[in-house]
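Try this one yourself first.
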């Protein structure tokens, strides 16, 4: 079973640079979470309760993340997009990119 290895082993599908395979150590909290999912009916989702939620609209995950940031005193700011749409300068998407950059930098040291 892949949890027993205590690593995350994958090949990125979005950006296939030299078809590089990535193997990183699994955080103990993630291991605990994944182990708890074994044998449950999750349809393969890591967070089944969040998988049922939409991503847009006032009750979507993006808005919920904005409210979490606001409650934490972090204001996202906005920038003008094309047309009438404004975009948040800070969002879950930017957090994900920041985390990936920090992880890559840590792996290089």
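Now uncover the answer:
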């Amino acid at each position: 079973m892949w949890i027993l290895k205590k690593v995350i082993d994958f090949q990125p599908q979005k950006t296939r640079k030299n078809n590089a395979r990535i193997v990183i150590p699994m955080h103990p909290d993630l291991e605990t979470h994944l182990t708890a999912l074994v044998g449950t009916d999750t349809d393969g989702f890591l967070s089944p309760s969040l998988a049922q939620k939409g991503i847009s609209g006032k009750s979507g995950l993006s808005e919920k993340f904005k409210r979490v940031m606001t409650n934490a005193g972090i204001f996202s700011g906005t920038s003008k997009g094309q047309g009438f749409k404004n975009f948040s300068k800070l969002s879950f998407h930017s957090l994900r990119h920041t985390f990936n950059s920090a992880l890559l930098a840590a792996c290089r040291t």
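Discussion: Residues 58-109 form one domain. The longest strand covers residues 7-10.
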